[in-house]
Amino acid sequence: MNIKDRDIIVINKSDIEESTKNEHNVIIVNNPQEKENVDLADLLGSNWPTNAGGAAMILNRPKTTDNNLEKSVTSSGNFVRNKEDFAQKVISPVDVKSIANPEINSSNYQELHEIPGTKLTIGSLVEVSDSGICADLYGVIRWIGIAPDLPHILVGIEVEDDPNLKNLTTSDGTYNGVRLFQCREGGAIFVPPNKCTNDRRFVETEGNHSVSVISTDTNAVKFGHVDCPPVLGAVAPLGIHNIDELENICGKFKGIQGHHNSCYLDATLFSMFTFTSVFDSILYRRPDAQDISHYSAVQNVLRDEIVNPLRKNVFVRADRVMKLRKFLDQLSSVSGLTSEEKDPEEFLNSLLSQIMRVEPFLKLSSGQDSYFYQLFVEKDERLTFPTVQQLFEQSFHSSDIKLKEVPSCLIIQMPRFGKSYKMYSRILPSQVLDITDIIEDSPRQCSVCGKLAEYECRECFGSLQAGSGLEGTAFCQKCLNTAHMHAKRANHESKKLSVPRDFKVMADHMTLPRLYMELFAVVCIETSHYVAFVKAGSGPDAPWCFFDSMADRKGEKNGYNIPEMISVRELPQWLSDEGARVINERSIKDKVLPEHAKRLFCDAYMCMYQSTDVMMYH
After folding, report:
1. Do 92-202 and 215-355 have matching folds?
2. Of 259, 294, 529, 596, which residue is the catalytic one?
3. Which residue of 302, 309, 355, 417 has the smallest Cβ count within 10 Å?
């Protein structure tokens, strides 16, 4: 464009200061260089505010030093003659093995949150279309921005698996020697934005219009005008030290937003990841040859769009969770996970076993493995308010099994069947679970004298005052003989325990350790709706919060649910032996119990325990 042929008046800074001293939104246009051909970018200047969006990032970036490209843009003759070459340069995949410039580092790359003019953002599920690379190339956008050596925006994609790529070099998330994101070796490609389209496999259809699941702006309006951007990297669980800190993060639009019968999944995910890291290995294990092709995509959605935002911003919008639900529904044997009522164990089986291939938490002496343990007990009419400890020991005793090792996590399902039948009207979740006597070949104490036990008598379960549970089945040789001199126990059959050799030598000079696990969450159900009580810290006095993903609702058919977190100051007292006894005796009828106490004692569906010692090694 020739400046002399245009009716343009270029003003300088002194003119602006004189005429608009109080204006703050003036874009200062610098005097153009004295040359015949002027780039439009020169006229617009390079001092645009960042809130002007992607165009500002392009205008503000340093001028390219590619002389051939400059000629093709500024010279109409050359542009026509070389337009095919220019187009090829813009749309062809970017070779990441260019020689690195030692003077360029990550600060020279201008990062964007989304591709301008599209609804594709970091975390979007995309396919690389019309690439000439390979067929069916799918992945997740991990980086968007402007590289100092390119005339266009660059998009970094972590592909689902390692395809047989043509004419393209992959990387581990580095471009020209600069790390832009982290992924496995060979899992990253860099392409121009016109290569990226929504992944057709995960598109919702509404009427005759296809709407991507990742339509961020639309979803923000649809689910309450609350932003929920992906959060990359590793984010630690929320660290809460007292009740005041907990109350500061509680309130409406806190936690995971429910949508289309998602409460079973919302309550479980909130319990698993908000305040503890016991499940974090799921978020970071690298894929191997036995994993499904969608492993990384599912892991990225779980980590970057659900767990990390939950821990950083204490909120996850429903559309983010729906992306995970769509994966689960399509990739596992459990159907209806996007809309139907389900149970937490169905979700856990789908995610942990079938998709993420997590090593089972429980290894049983029977040779079986499991992610959770269902309590199977016969109702004891003498127990009106049993503890989880009592039911846990009774179940293991009646099944005649033990755990081969201390698990990092123990998920226990209460003795109830369906959504209505409960074996006990009230159950007290034990704050600490003693698992010493259900670990195979673990040193045990004699229930009478406290010395190292050498024998176990299963028939003595619940018959001795020294120990009413499994603890009362362990004896040293001397106490075994004495206890079984009584006529009622004379015909009992005992078996010798396998005692570690080191403990036999040191038994008289040391206190035998007991093995405990700590309660950190209770998932409850009432009338098909799941909620959760979650411990925000460690120790008996740590505060607890109550979480409901559908605590309130805005609008009707086209409305949205409002999640809520509430601190429950009284809960540590309710869980104590004395506090539980008092509230149980004072409130004989369930309806007179405090609201949260009723949900905790009467509606418990699943209790989650963790071993802080073992989880350090996983």
Report:
1. no
2. 529
3. 417
